[in-house]
Design a protein that fits this description.
This protein has a single domain, classed as Vaccinia Virus protein VP39 (Rossmann fold). The protein is globular. Helix 2 (17-33) crosses helix 3 and helix 2 runs antiparallel to helix 6 (101-113). The chain has a 7-stranded mixed beta sheet, with helices on both faces. Helix content is 37%, strand content 19%. The relative contact order is 0.14. It is α/β, with parallel strands linked by helices.
């Protein structure tokens, strides 16, 4: 985990044996469970370190993350980026949402093994809890590494962001046209024009698409489950 250690040291974060050990345990637990549950296509520890751990932490320098207290991870899958971020930021609370129950059960068990008291999970499709006052427009930051069109992801995520908060999507360098095409949807859902940040993790190939929530999302959004993916705004 030398690359991760160097990365954390550059950020001024704990990188001692105990700190690195928690990321190591997370990786080992995911890869172990991956033999029976499809949590990740990445099965080589060195790739996991770069493309999952360090990539998830590429948001650390973003002011919207630094200032957030309540964070939602939509489409968390194996707990990414939520679990690595929760390890790094014990002062923040994280809700990890996914529609696949088996994955969430694994993530919940891993969080328990890691002693992450700041992590909760929610088994749901992204569209369904968005009308619940306990969730709608209550999060300082919503993050997603889910593989979906940005217009669709914006409809999933922006309804959960409070005014003045942020939605950050992890996207590939090739997503510039996708980002341009999503601007109408972002505006409709209450977001400001997207800003892109180039992460300092070249191995991941990711950029961060950062969208500030400047107006409340109209009550009609998100549309019923399945519609945002089938018919993006």
């Amino acid at each position: 985990m030398e690359k991760l250690k160097r990365f954390l040291e550059q950020k001024g974060l704990p990188a001692d044996t105990h700190a690195i050990g928690r990321y190591q345990l997370y990786m080992e637990e995911v890869l172990r469970r991956n033999e029976t549950i499809n949590l990740t296509a990445i099965r080589v520890p060195e790739e996991f370190e770069e493309k999952h751990l360090i990539d998830s932490l590429s948001i650390l320098d973003f002011p919207g993350f630094e200032q957030a207290g309540r964070v939602l991870d939509i489409g968390t899958g194996a707990g990414l980026p939520g679990i690595p971020l929760a390890i790094t930021a014990p002062d923040k609370t994280f809700l990890l949402m996914d529609s696949v129950g088996k994955k969430l059960t694994a993530v919940s068990e891993i969080a328990l093994a890691l002693g992450l008291n700041n992590v909760q999970v929610l088994h749901a499709r992204a569209e369904d809890p968005a009308s619940d006052p306990a969730y709608r427009e209550t999060f300082d930051l919503v993050v997603s590494r889910a593989v979906a069109n940005l217009s669709t992801l914006s409809e999933y995520c922006l309804p959960y962001v409070r005014e003045g908060g942020w939605f950050v999507a992890y996207k590939t360098l090739s997503a510039k046209e996708e980002i341009r095409q999503a601007q109408r949807a972002i505006r409709l859902l209450g977001g400001a024009p997207a800003q892109t940040l180039q992460g300092d993790v070249p191995e991941s190939g990711h950029i961060l698409v950062c969208i500030e929530k400047v107006r409340r999302t109209p009550p009609a959004y998100p549309r019923k489950a399945g519609t945002p993916a089938k018919d993006p705004l």
